[in-house]
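Changelog note: in this version the structure field was regenerated for every chain. One regenerated record is shown below for reference.
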Amino acid sequence: MPVNAAPEQPALTGAGAAHGLGDLAHHTGDYVRAWSELFAGEAQLARVCVNRLLLAAVWTCFLVFGIVITGNVLAAALLERWLTDWASAIALTLLLNFIVLVGLLLAMRAWWRNLSLPRSRRALRHLMQRLHETDRASNAG
């Protein structure tokens, strides 16, 4: 008998086949039950984590908002001391905010290009084309 050949299985008939199908049904039921319990446990864990993440996101938004407001007040106060005019200080603070916003938007645009992973998509497309060409060549030959 060759080394890689699978051993021959005796043919099951009658009661042996029914017993084999019963075992298969029992094991399949256990398998489905285990996966169902795993899924339910993961869903419960995800529900707890989502609540914590949302709470942390809300607190982070308040914290960042407070930092930005504090920075604006300090910038306006320093500009007022330098210019001795509140209207000019507030206008320059607004201009500074606008410049920072435009800078962040431009940075996000550059980050979006990096996050879209164009080289990875191109490599995946090239790999899939090679696989299809190889498959066609093996089917034709």
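Spot check on this record: The CA atoms of residues 23 and 29 lie 10 Å apart. Residues 15-83 form the longest helix (69 residues).
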